[in-house]
Specification:
By secondary structure, this protein is mostly helical. It has 4 helices and no strands.
């Protein structure tokens, strides 16, 4: 699942970087605002998740210790909630960068067209 989302974001980023996608700044303003809010919320969740990075105390017997170790592996594992948040934070940042590039592409294209037709904005 993560690969599909990452692939879509990468395709969008690549298209924006190559100038294939452009968007007017006014049209993208709402999306940029929402991406900023998402980034902030994910950042707060990740900060809170780092504070929970202590050993789990489930008992001094071997069963409790084994369960605690398993819980910590799940907490820090590659398929954990925290790992998913880190991936989401990365993909959100890449999406925001790509959207800003699309705005730049629009401005560049608009300037080029104006210059082509000897007009100014």
């Amino acid at each position: 699942m993560y690969e599909a989302i990452g692939g879509a974001v990468s395709a969008f980023s690549n298209a924006a970087a190559s100038g294939q996608v452009s968007i007017e700044a006014e049209a993208a303003a709402d999306a940029l605002k929402k991406l900023g809010k998402v980034k902030d919320q994910i950042g707060r969740l990740l900060l809170r998740s780092d504070t929970g990075n202590t050993d789990v105390q489930l008992g001094a017997n071997p069963v409790g210790q084994a369960m605690a170790a398993k819980s910590m592996r799940r907490y820090d594992g590659s398929d954990s909630f925290v790992a998913a948040l880190r991936i989401l934070a990365d993909q959100t940042a890449k999406s925001e960068t790509a959207l800003k590039q699309c705005i730049d592409n629009y401005v560049d294209e608009d300037d080029f067209r104006a210059a082509t037709y000897n007009r100014t904005q």
